[in-house]
Amino acid sequence: MLENKKFTMHKAPFIRKADHGENTTVMMRDFMIALAPLIIFAWVKNGLLPYIADKTNFFGMLYPLLLVLVGAASAFLFEFLWYYFIIKKEKVWISLAKSYPLIPGILLGMIVPVSTPLWLVVIGVFFATVVGKLLFGGFGNNIFNPALLGYLFLTFAYFGVMTGNNAAIGANSYFNAKEVDAVTSATPMTIFMGDRVGSVNLLIEKYGLLKMFLGFTPGALAETSALLCLLAFIFLTIRKTIDWRIPTIYVGSVFVLTYIIGAINGYAGTLNYALFGVLNGGLMFGAVFMATEPVTSPRNPNGVILYSFGLGALTVLFRFASSMPEGVATSILIMNMFTAALERFSAKLRVEPNKRKVVVSYALIGLLFAGIGTLAVVKNMPKHIEFVETEQDFSTFNFKYKFLIGEEEVVVETDKSYKILNINNPDYRTDEYKTAFSELISKNEYKIYVDEAFETAVELRLTVITTGFSANLTVEITFNNDFEMTAFETDTSSETYGSPDNKEWNGVHPDEATPPQIIENQDDLSKVDVKTGATATNEALVNAARYAFKYIEYLQNITELKLVGNYQNYDNLNFVYVLRDADGKYLVEADKDGNLLSDVDEGVRAEIEALVSENQPEEFIASKEGNSITVQTKAYGTNPPLLTKVTYDPETLEITAFEADTSSETYESPYNEEWHKEGNDVHPDEALPNQILENQDDLDKVEAVTGATITSNSLIRAARIALDYLAYLGGKNE
Fold first, then answer.
1. Residue 406 burial (10 A CB sphere; 0-12, 13-18, 19+)
2. Does residue 21 surpass a pLDDT of 60?
3. 13 vs 177, higher pLDDT
4. What beta strand segments (E) does 158-295 contain?
5. pTM, rounded to two decimals
6. How far apart are CA 580 and CA 558, in angstroms?
7. What dotted CATH number matches 620-733?
8. Which stretches of 369-458 are assigned E, i.e. beta strand?
9. For residues 351 and 361, what is the distance between their CA atoms, to the nearest angstrom?
10. Residue-range domain boundaries for the chain
11. What pLDDT digit, counting tens, does each position of 449-474 carry?
């Protein structure tokens, strides 16, 4: 019988088709046939359609193909040079014919971001081909998938360049020229990493599962179309080019583990969560084309099963318990390292007569992979969040909320509008946790806090917000340099103690009677009489005084040099920086560039210069001429500052003209749907000036332009600065 059988002796991959005259070349040909539809689809989606939509140029239309062609050509060139100059044991063309040099370059070109520079593809292919393949001995001897090794190298060494903007073609990172408006958010998997629970429904609503299946979502050339990956899987399985068990078990295990994680987070009644995890990112492409590479994957049936389960467990671990939005490439490379060990392990067990030992051995490996998957599940179980306490950071006037999550303390910092600025533990910076923190913060808002502190050479003025009976009260408190309270001003007219139903009110308004008592009894505020029929209002005022003294205590305990305030000198437009240390307070003047104008001790000059440099004002009066001033305010994002010319009447000190230019802002972007809504496309520099002139007594009445809110608020702040300057002029004239 054996004389009728043909056996081939060769290095991996081993093809079981010798009886039909087929060899490795046939397998590589089938592999390329399966890749072709994905390459064509990637070109149509990322090149042709943006070109037809007039979003890119001819070069941009060809660019997706160039990523693949440059990858293939450079891989061929590197192998040619390697065999021509370094390995000379046979003719170079014979070596190349047995090495299939194009494959790593093509695959790398398909998995990098759409905007990747071509020169960077060449570098990645060099690493993939030379380091990942040839140094190991060439095709059949490499331990790792070369294309993935090259991709991982680029990710670590050139991530910023690889995911940056490519102005030549209008693409940015994984977004082609037609999708680039979406770069203000991120790819589906990056958004998913930020909120692994709440984002899924939003992303499915935005793209739809059908679009995800077909491949019309942002991503690398190869990773978007699950449909084409599925067809390639069927073709390669029929052709016996790949082991069908690897993609099936790999994707299946990811699906099951993702479903479990979704189920414990509110998705038990739907498959949407698990389907999202399978249809997005590089899972399908990696499972079909990367994980099945015959050189770096096991061939023993039991080894294949273990390998595939390991891939699934690791991918879920990286996706759900790390900062990686994907994890497919890293998972495959890790399992590549264990391929040989799995082969030997499973081969020995196949001939092991002790069946109990076989069962125990496989059970232990299974438990290892199950443990990895379980870790990902446990890391994503909903955690109880308990509010502990809150305190105001007097150095920034921000609020710090302390929460307990399990036994771990988490500090969340917000501004005075309760917008989250920072979370001390990066594990809890997801949108899911931010939402939970925001809900608890809204239930524990500050009843009293320092809103502002303004310190001059002779006094300190604090603005304290305190909660009265029916409304928040604004209290202005002044201290001298000895921290003695010299003034206490407020307006309690918004309170309801004067209601006819309040029979106990004695007719004396708290804002008239209580401030003198507070100043007189500032050393012992318990002596202030609050029982006047307006008890809640009076207590709110006394609490404001107590809280002001907490800030005074903070100032008294400052030991190291610290900046406690700054303001603009309206006489010369320089800036005054108020500093404190253990010896007290002193003022330093600097110009708008941060150059010190005051004489300071050389021993602390460097420290003062650093504080001034770090705290230069962004909004101020840039210049003044006659009865007009130019105000500089912060614009949207990284746009240049806005300059507004404000003209005033020197007699009445009222604003008479307000001229701004917002042409440098980006609210006109075609992707800003809010601004382009019918009737909304009004420019702030046209809509706001008249409003500001009419409402300069109460700028809160000025309405921002929809879709240009940040720009509008910048102009309103310019008006406030101008009014503050006019109030200063009024004070000088009295």
1. exposed
2. no
3. 177
4. 165-166, 171-172
5. 0.64
6. 7
7. 3.90.1010.20
8. 385-393, 398-405, 408-414, 420-423, 448-455
9. 13
10. 18-183+218-224, 385-446, 450-497+508-557, 562-615, 620-733
11. 999 998 888 899 999 999 988 889 99
